[in-house]
## 1
Amino acid sequence: MRKLIESTLVSLDGVIEAPERWAGFDDEATAYSTEELGNYDAFVMGRVTYEKFFANWGHITGNPYIDLISTMPKHVASRSLTKLAWNATVLGPDPSTAILRLKEQPGKDLIKYGTSRFDDTLVRDHLIDEFRFWIMPIAVGSGQRLFQDVDTSGLHLRLTEHRRLGNGSMILTYAPN
């Protein structure tokens, strides 16, 4: 069975909003993230993430990382979108059941970038198999925080892996108990 992995860039003070403004990726971090992306064959994302990613990356070619993302199927949770581009489809009226079906299909694991309101559903329904927090050595000050607007009262995690990068970032992998 495939797993759903959520990977989120987080500042030292818990901010996840607009990481393109503050998350530093050197050659090592870029190589590692590209290598990691090869472990997945589809994205799961909410509407806001889809719209932002498509606007920023949907028309870029020639970057190995973005080219890989562009070719991957994207499964989007949305109540309002009906037409999608960029190899994307809507999960439908019951995204939890749709994700369960995706997890039952053969293939590589599924990836979700960022923590969003959609996580309230994913956490409630125990659909995320691993959380990867890329802790960046910077305090951002303000912005959306990790798990903001998500009921985490039933979420209990155990550290399963950690990796330190040369730029001072830590990648912490947690699995639900």
## 2
Amino acid sequence: MPDGWPAPRAWWGFSAAITLNYWFERLDDGGWTLNGKEQAQVAGLADLDLGFTPATNLLPIRRLGLRPGIQMPAPAAYLAFPELRLERLDQTYRRLDDTRYAYAAPAFGYDEVIEVAPSGFVVDYPGLWTTTALR
């Protein structure tokens, strides 16, 4: 990670032999930057969704604190992959019970029930991801 980049907001990794470094910042006014450049198309969005992992579903699940039966929109600043650019992702969560949410992301035609651990971390994302470690 380059010097001066704040670790809590940075993502770095590699793809084949290419090293990737991305730095996200949510500004006090609700704006976002990607690698220091303002991203007006996602201004005002509360959450960051990294398109390659269900781990970032934890952010809106915890932030919304939904009771069973309640549905809320939760648009996010989505890191499109493999383009690696931020764009708006409209999505909704409806809490079904202690461990299940109806989750929809219409842009991807995704509308499924996801299962979460007590922490809110996704343990089953039908058709895309599952874990056995947190069950």
